[in-house]
């Protein structure tokens, strides 16, 4: 997001002020509400101690926390993109929160997809691996990974005096040793894992359609997998493609001014709209909760059976009470005759 002497990006910055206001304000309000509700909803599943839902609930809470962190960073990102931060350290902190939340979401979604694939493909083998403690440990490892991976952010602006957050980044930020590990391990590898797992999951579930009695539950699972994959691709593919194009610009492979301006516009637009991911994840939450409820309904006895059980229990209690009263009466008669 640099500005050369012969190519001004002022008109792009002015346009993005309007776009950010139109996108970030509703994203902040909706994202704050939806993610707080998601944390509350999945926490209720954990409190009820349903072991079969614990692993997925912990992953979903972790994803909602990352999304919430992104939401809380949006007002600062929007303001500091256009005015100079009072301290460079404060600017770095906001950038850390923003990128940590982005890549934390990527890794969490990747592990959710991998966990679901192992559970569907090897249910007996991984049943002991999906304990709440181990899932919580994986989520903690994701936090450590993204925090350690955020160290290049501390040198985003180098020794630049006229800095702005998310702008005027140093040449070292766009060096090959920083860019390629970010692209490969931060996006391409998670996307490949998620794409493979999602494809295999859907194929396995569809193949079981004629050999299972709980197709409603498996259909809900298919919708969950498809929604997660769609949200992932729509949210993160454009922004990482724009990172690649900007890498080519900053390393001298693209020098034409109009191309630079188009790439800068694409980069800022893709980053702006990728923030909507914190609201789009609600579709994943919806289908997961729907899957939970479908599974619970499938394992509940029919209403008629519940009524019959309740009637039989009541009748049994009535017989027991009559027998106790009869025995009491016989005992009383025996006492009187004696």
Automatic annotation (TrEMBL):
Q: Superkingdom of this entry's organism? A: Eukaryota
InterPro entries recorded: GPCR_Rhodpsn (IPR000276), GPCR_Rhodpsn_7TM (IPR017452)
Q: How does it sit in the membrane?
A: Multi-pass membrane protein
- Compartments it resides in: Cell membrane
Sorted alphabetically, the Gene Ontology BP terms of this entry are: bone resorption; negative regulation of osteoclast differentiation; phospholipase C-activating G protein-coupled receptor signaling pathway; positive regulation of ERK1 and ERK2 cascade; positive regulation of Rho protein signal transduction
Q: Name one GO molecular function term.
A: cannabinoid receptor activity
Report whether DNA repair shows up as a keyword of the record. Answer: no
Q: Which residues cross the membrane?
A: 19-38, 50-75, 87-114, 135-154, 178-199, 220-243, 263-288
This protein's name: G-protein coupled receptor 55
List the top taxonomic levels of the source.
Eukaryota, Metazoa, Chordata, Craniata, Vertebrata
């Amino acid at each position: 997001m640099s500005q050369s002497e012969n190519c001004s990006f002022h008109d792009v910055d002015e346009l993005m002020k309007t776009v950010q206001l139109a996108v970030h304000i509703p994203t902040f309000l909706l994202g704050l509400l939806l993610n707080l509700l998601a944390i509350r909803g999945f926490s209720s599943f954990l409190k009820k101690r349903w072991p079969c839902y614990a692993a997925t609930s912990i992953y979903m809470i972790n994803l909602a926390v990352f999304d919430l962190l992104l939401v809380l960073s949006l007002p600062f990102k929007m303001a500091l993109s256009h005015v100079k931060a009072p301290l460079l350290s404060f600017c770095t902190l906001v950038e850390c929160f923003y990128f940590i939340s982005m890549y934390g979401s990527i890794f969490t979604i990747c592990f959710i997809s991998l966990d679901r694939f192992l559970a569907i493909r090897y249910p007996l083998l991984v049943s002991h691996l999906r304990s709440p403690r181990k899932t919580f440990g994986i989520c903690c490892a994701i936090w450590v990974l993204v925090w350690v991976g955020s160290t290049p952010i501390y040198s985003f602006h180098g020794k630049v005096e006229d800095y702005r957050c998310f702008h005027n980044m140093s040449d070292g930020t766009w060096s090959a040793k920083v860019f390629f590990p970010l692209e490969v391990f931060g996006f391409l590898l998670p996307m490949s894992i998620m794409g493979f797992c999602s494809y295999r999951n859907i194929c396995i579930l569809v193949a079981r359609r004629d050999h299972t009695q709980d197709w409603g539950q498996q259909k809900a699972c298919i919708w969950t997998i498809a929604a997660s994959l769609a949200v992932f691709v729509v949210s993160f593919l454009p922004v990482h493609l724009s990172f690649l194009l900007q890498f080519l610009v900053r390393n001298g492979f693209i020098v034409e001014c109009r191309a630079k301006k188009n790439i800068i516009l694409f980069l800022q637009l893709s980053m702006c709209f990728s923030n909507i991911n914190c609201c789009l994840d609600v579709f994943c939450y919806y289908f997961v909760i729907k899957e939970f409820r479908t599974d619970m309904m499938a394992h509940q006895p029919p209403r008629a059976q519940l009524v019959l059980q309740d009637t039989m229990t009541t009748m049994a209690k009535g017989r027991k009470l009559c027998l106790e009263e009869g025995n009491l009466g016989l005992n009383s008669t025996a006492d009187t005759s004696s």
